[in-house]
Specification:
The protein is an alpha/beta fold and 444 residues long. It has 16 helices and ten strands.
Length: 444
């Protein structure tokens, strides 16, 4: 869920060059700035891929706006969070005009530092809302309708599977509609091929062990906190998610990710693990890392947790936000609106790298959903579109206590998977620990 995954999205879904037409109502002048005068707008990004993505849009914007320079600085990850936090603690001193911020960091900053970011609604951002996936757009909003950031790149919860192994085990993925059915099919898969169904760092030592629980819970419309900031870690939905992980573990189809090395996703290439349920960027990463696996794998929508439920979740996103003390708010906003809110700007960015934007008009552009031939069946890009455009995709509430919640949850998950604790009891205990540590109320 953290931005660590998002900065790798440049190696993700394969996206063709989009159509050259501009967004309805915008012309080739859409990048023209009304701010006037010589000025430099500084942008901080959280990784090289993000900086490279913006570079072509920067060039086009500067050509259309003589006198305005967009200076993109690749601060790096996690260095950017340290710099932003230090600057905010100093009253905003040293902040750039625009900064890339992860969906999990944004609420913490806005809660702890009121006024730190400009409310983009006051600059005209509301006019763009209808052209973005609602879940991604909602992730940049504050509790009172403020808009603190426009979606830059987004990821949904993915499902990539080794079709050759499924075929060998006689399992037709298209007939599986729920996670319970998937886990039960995993028993057959393990018996006939020796492959584990999926993997998770059971002891929460290295890998982001909470990610699967998070997205399973999001598929049910819940998370660590509700929209009022109350603790929902131990909700019925959260307990169901942990029960599914325990079921997979008890049936012997859940591999321990800590026993594998991360390089090149070798556990997937050698047939040890048959599915990956990470974020949607993983499909492109695996294609790049293991080209010899072409023709063996497929992507699909996730099974629902309950029959008829959501088959996707918002696994992560990053946003472009404007500092509240920026002296170039108008020009900064016009650049964001051009780069992220027009087909013209998005086309320029597509020529640099493939990535997963939140701007939905791009999805119907020529070539966007084309596959490379690596995966059997529908392309990762098509599955991404089918996922992000689901109307019931929940917007997770992170709050400033998200990092604390992850740690407390991970400890509870370890008790369940390593020591056999009861999922509901472990989550009830975790919720109380989180309440004691944060002063937040437990919902209900």
């Amino acid at each position: 869920m953290e931005l660590r995954t998002l900065t790798r999205v440049a190696t993700g879904l394969t996206v063709g060059v989009v159509a050259a037409a501009a967004l309805a109502g915008c012309t080739g002048d859409s990048g023209s700035s009304s701010a006037g005068g010589d000025q430099t707008v500084t942008v901080w990004t959280a990784g090289t891929s993000a900086a490279e993505l913006l570079a072509p849009a920067v060039a086009e914007f500067e050509d259309a706006n003589p006198g305005t320079t967009i200076d993109v600085v690749d601060v790096g990850n996690p260095a950017i969070w340290e710099k932003i936090t230090t600057s905010l603690a100093a009253g905003g001193e040293g902040l750039p005009d625009i900064m890339q911020i992860g969906i999990d960091y944004l609420p913490g900053y806005t809660e702890k530092f009121p006024g730190a970011f400009a409310d983009l609604s006051t600059l005209g951002a509301d006019d763009l809302a209808a052209d973005f996936a609602p879940s991604a757009w909602g992730g940049g909003m504050g509790p009172d309708g403020e808009l603190w950031g426009v979606p830059f790149e987004v990821n949904t919860a993915g499902f990539t599977y080794n079709k050759s192994l499924f075929d060998a085990a006689g399992i037709d993925m298209s007939t599986i509609t729920t996670w319970d059915e998937l886990i039960e099919a995993g028993v057959t898969l393990k018996a006939k091929t020796g492959a584990s169904l999926f993997e998770l760092d059971k002891a929460a030592t290295n890998h982001p062990s909470a990610d699967i629980w998070q997205t399973l819970t999001q598929q049910q419309g819940s998370f660590y906190f509700n929209a009022d900031g109350e603790i929902t870690l131990n909700s019925a939905e959260g307990a169901k998610s942990l029960e599914l992980l325990k079921k997979a573990n008890d049936l012997g189809v859940l591999a321990d990710a800590a026993s594998f090395t991360a390089g090149g996703a070798s556990q997937y290439a050698d047939g040890s693990v048959a599915t990956n349920v990470d974020a949607s960027w993983w499909a492109g990463y695996f294609e790049d890392a293991q080209p010899d696996q072409a023709g063996k794998w497929a992507v699909a929508l996730r099974p629902a947790v309950e029959e008829g439920g959501a088959t996707a979740a918002l696994a992560g996103a990053s946003y472009l936000s404007i500092a509240g003390n920026s002296e170039h708010k108008d020009a900064a906003w016009e650049f964001i609106a051009f780069a992220l809110g027009t087909l013209e700007g998005q086309e320029a960015m597509q020529t640099a790298h493939a990535f997963t934007p939140g701007f939905t008009p791009v999805y119907s552009s020529d070539g966007f959903t084309d596959g490379s031939g690596f995966y059997v069946g529908e392309s990762p890009s098509q599955i991404f579109v089918d996922s992000i455009t689901q109307p019931d995709l929940a917007v997770p509430t992170f709050t400033s206590d998200y990092a604390r919640a992850i740690k407390i949850y991970a400890d509870a998950q370890t008790k369940v998977l390593i020591s056999g604790a009861d999922p509901q009891e472990a989550l009830d205990e975790a919720a109380q620990l989180l309440a004691d540590a944060t002063g937040r109320e437990i919902a209900g």
